[in-house]
Automatic annotation (TrEMBL), chain A:
Family that this chain belongs to: Belongs to the glycosyl hydrolase 13 family.
One Pfam family named in its UniProt record: Alpha-amylase
GO terms, biological process: glycogen catabolic process
Name used for this protein in its record: Glycogen debranching protein GlgX
The encoding gene: glgX
A GO term for molecular function: amylo-alpha-1,6-glucosidase activity
Keyword flag Transcription: no
InterPro entries in the record: GH, GH13_cat_dom, Glyco_hydro_13_N, Glyco_hydro_b, Glycogen_debranch_GlgX, Ig-like_fold, Ig_E-set
Keywords: Glycosidase, Hydrolase, Transit peptide
Superkingdom of origin: Bacteria
Sequence ranges assigned to domain Glycosyl hydrolase family 13 catalytic in this UniProt record: 168-578
UniProtKB/TrEMBL annotation, chain B:
Pfam families: STAS
InterPro entries attached to this UniProt entry: Anti-sigma_ant, STAS_dom, STAS_dom_sf
One term of GO molecular function: anti-sigma factor antagonist activity
Organism field: Mucilaginibacter aquatilis
Source organism superkingdom: Bacteria
Name used for this protein in its record: Anti-sigma factor antagonist
Chain ranges passing through the membrane: none
Length: 714, 107
């Protein structure tokens, strides 16, 4: 500090009511600690003047308002250093003056105090669901954070994407239930307490649903019939892109959410678990022309939002507005934001909500070569981050299979989800689609390899895995929208009874179907993603759009781990099986040839008879054999793996392919086994004696290993 | 409550006694004391904080600063912290970088 004090450019040149300041630096944007002061820098192209407004933390009225002198504006950037501020107790914002002319895209109003788009923390929602003071003159207050976290030797893990097993989760839902046993329920610290569980399950990546600061009270309402409080629970509505949600931190009320989140990430990394963020750059919490001006709308509306020629908001997000991502200024903000999270928080990857919007021009038209997506793909700071697109938007742009990838982007494979669901419920003409899904969708990604697709059967959006086999239709009345919200086409099947039942056959079939789904997911080429709680049969009681519930509908009931112990143990097994067998984790597609002259092609298709797969519309049986000598595309050795699936209600007797060199088939998984364990520990798989009449039960999946003989015959 | 800090070095052990509130207005005082004891390369740092009532984010930074200034081989002992301070250390995970003890040396 002493040496820095000697710099001659860090002395005040101006004074305003006892507060000393000087011209600042235009970069970086935001509020940055400098010797003895804070550098404030904010961009606005169409404003006529700007005033810095500063509060003591929590105070109703500002202690100072300093207009930026004209000479402090360089280009379209206002910059100022203010000295002798209390970093920890400072809250700040801006008044931006300029035309209020919506028809031409301008909505300036100097009476409104606006958050800094580059603020690193936001005050106002420090404690989850604490009642806000609606009379406050400034609700979402920009704050400073210390960037001196002690990361020690931590860095992003850089696990190859094909080796990941992603676990999508909601911070609050994961530990909020009374059964979680966590001390700090519903928080980042709560997740840290559950790291041993995540390790036990075997996943090596968590994907956090939005943790950027949002307002849980946004669009809150009471259920028209039950009176229950409904809130913006999931948080897909960003207030600020650089700030972690304080209400997700046990220490948020103390302003320590940054430390708490970084500690979580550091501890996850030290346990071999990567951290992905679900980021929402397609829209903000400011809504359409009727929504509040919180930040972007008042700072430079025409820059930050896609506007119609009449000055209204394009609504490709379905939430009122659309961020103008391919405007160069906004594009740079997105880049700055992701670089910040990658460098300051050591984030390993990002999943972009409604990412098709990121490929739209300011007038809404899809771009052939979207500059933002290209910039992200080739950004030097993000070079080792995984980039995953939800390749569609609410405006009808559906890009699964053809998202502009630049050799970098992966995408949520929505077609995988739909096709596997259809196959599992027994639809006709699905065997070919299942073959594609298990191979990593080579028809969809012929040049991009298997890792272009994030395979999933369930995610936060839609039914849980249990509900997929317990409900034919959505049951969203609890959302207060008369069951009109949420997708109506779920490709689900209730196994014979809608909802909860005591019919043992139905319960058993549901468990088998969940195991079938988990097995197919974990043996498919590509990157598997599991939704939180599916490993223990979590239910949302048929609700496929639980965005508004801060209660049991979303909270993970940890008792299910015991109640559905068979399912949980099974999920652990198939995850461990995937990790043990590199032939399941190829980066490139199979060639269907034996280019290394091993005796078998890298993958072969089968049916009831070896090498005779029936792809006709009436077929429900599919089998394939993966040649272990082609593991990791021929770079390492593995066992042979034979996978067979049956979505019909009748059993079949399979003739298995003949192996050579003393190898024989062993059973790892057989979900059709009813009265005994349906999976076998790795290394202790029983040998199959009858390889010409191996029973594939109704609605079952088997996974066999071809290797030298174990000594444990079935 | 005003922040008060005293320091001493005894047999190679740096001992700081803190009371009051450790926040952004007082953290610099602790930083000075840490820098002072660091010049004598202590083998351990012991913080007597039974009278410390509050530790803010700026206070936490002083623990990080101490660890980095003294080196990772120098253990930091926190003697008789109040429950609220322990809670803060737990929530933020800093507790893994220090030793919470009732007495130093242990009896």
């Amino acid at each position: 500090m002493a040496e820095l004090d000697l710099r001659i450019d860090y002395y005040p040149t101006h004074e305003h009511k006892g507060i000393k300041y000087r011209r600042g630096h235009v970069l970086p944007f935001g509020a940055t600690m400098v010797p003895n002061g804070v550098n404030f820098s904010v961009y606005s192209s169409a404003s006529t003047s700007c005033t810095l407004v500063m509060f003591e933390r929590g105070e109703a009225s500002p202690f100072a308002e300093i207009p930026f002198p004209d000479e402090f504006k360089i280009g379209n950037v206002y910059c100022m250093i203010v000295f002798d501020l209390d970093f920890e107790n400072l809250e700040y914002g801006y008044r931006m003056d300029g035309p209020y002319d919506p028809a031409n895209g301008h909505r300036f109003n100097k009476d409104t105090i606006l958050s800094d788009p580059y603020a690193k923390a936001i005050g106002g929602r420090d404690t989850w669901l604490a009642l806000p003071n609606k009379d406050e003159m400034y609700s979402f207050r920009s704050r400073l954070v210390f960037e001196d976290f002690d990361w020690e030797y931590d860095r992003p893990l850089q696990i190859p994407i094909e080796d990941l097993v992603i676990y999508e989760m909601h911070v609050r839902s994961f530990t909020m239930h009374p059964t979680s046993g966590a001390k700090y329920k519903g928080t980042f610290a709560g997740i840290r307490e559950k790291i041993p569980y995540l390790k036990e399950l075997g996943i090596n990546c968590i994907e956090l649903m939005p943790i950027y600061e949002f307002d849980e009270w946004e669009h809150s309402k009471l259920h028209p019939e039950t009176g229950e409080q409904l809130v913006n629970y999931w948080g897909y509505s960003t207030l600020n892109f650089f700030s972690p949600k304080a209400g997700y931190a046990a220490s948020g009320r103390l302003g320590m959410q940054v430390d708490e989140l970084k500690t979580l990430i550091k501890d996850l990394h030290s346990n071999g678990i990567e951290v992905f963020l679900d980021v929402v750059f397609n829209h903000t919490a400011e809504g359409d022309h009727r929504g509040p001006a919180i930040s972007f709308k008042g700072i430079d509306n025409k820059t930050y939002y896609m506007l119609t020629p009449e000055g209204y908001y394009f609504n490709f997000s379905g939430t009122g507005n659309t961020l103008n991502c391919n405007n160069p200024v906004v594009r740079n903000m997105v880049l700055d934001c992701l670089r910040y999270w990658a460098s300051e928080y050591h984030i390993d990857g990002f999943r972009f909500d409604l990412a098709a919007i990121l490929g739209r021009a300011p007038d809404g038209s899809p771009l052939n070569n979207p500059p933002l997506l290209e910039s992200l793909a080739f950004d030097p700071v993000l070079a080792n981050c995984k980039l995953i697109a939800e390749a569609w938007d609410a405006g009808g742009l559906y890009q699964v299979g053809n998202f502009p990838a630049y050799g970098r982007w992966a995408e949520w494979n929505g077609k995988y989800r739909d096709n596997v669901r259809k196959y599992l419920k027994g639809d006709a003409a699905m065997v070919g689609h299942l073959a594609q899904a298990i191979q990593g969708s080579p028809w969809m990604y012929p040049t991009r390899g298997t890792t272009a697709g994030i395979n999933f059967i369930t995610c936060h959006d839609g039914l849980t895995l249990y509900d997929l086999f317990a409900y034919n239709t959505k049951h969203n009345y609890a959302n207060g929208e008369d069951n009109n919200d949420g997708c109506s086409n779920n490709e689900s099947w209730n196994c014979g009874y809608e909802g909860e039942t005591v019919i043992e056959e139905v319960i058993a079939l549901r468990h088998r179907q969940m195991k079938n789904a988990l097995t197919i997911l974990l043996v498919s080429q590509g990157v598997p993603m599991i939704y939180m709680g599916d490993e223990m049969g979590r239910t949302q009681h048929g609700n496929n759009n639980a965005y508004c519930h801060d209660n049991d509908i979303n909270w993970l009931n940890w008792e299910l781990k015991n109640e559905n112990a068979d399912l949980f143990v099974f999920a652990k097994h198939v995850i461990a099986f995937r990790k043990a067998h590199p032939v399941l984790r190829n980066r490139n597609h199979f060639t269907h040839t034996d280019y290394m002259h091993t005796g078998f092609a890298d993958i072969t298709f089968h049916g009831v008879k070896p090498f005779q797969c029936d792809f006709s519309a009436d077929s429900r049986v599919f089998a394939c054999m993966l040649n272990g000598q082609y593991a990791k595309n021929g770079t390492c050795l593995d066992d042979y793996i034979y996978i067979a699936t049956n979505s019909s209600c009748e059993a079949f007797k399979l003739e298995l392919p003949l192996l050579s060199n003393g190898m024989c088939w062993h059973t790892s998984v057989n979900t059709g086994i009813v009265d005994a364990p349906c999976h076998f520990d790795i290394g202790n798989e029983p040998v199959i004696q009858n390889t010409v009449q191996y029973v594939l039960g109704p609605r079952s999946v088997i996974v066999l290993l071809g290797k030298l003989k174990n000594t444990n015959p079935l | 409550m005003a922040f008060i800090i005293t320091s001493e070095i005894s047999e190679g052990i740096a001992k700081l006694t803190l009371s009051g509130s450790l926040d952004s207005s007082s953290a610099s005082l602790m930083q000075v004391e840490i820098q002072k004891v660091a010049t004598q390369a202590p083998s351990a740092l012991v913080l007597y904080i039974s009278e410390l009532e509050f530790m803010s984010s700026a206070g936490l930074r002083m623990l990080i600063f101490a660890k980095q200034k003294l080196g990772t081989s120098v253990q930091i002992y926190i003697v008789q912290p109040q429950g609220q301070i322990v809670d803060t250390l737990q929530m933020t995970g800093i507790i893994h970088s220090v030793h919470i003890v009732d007495n130093y040396p242990a009896q």
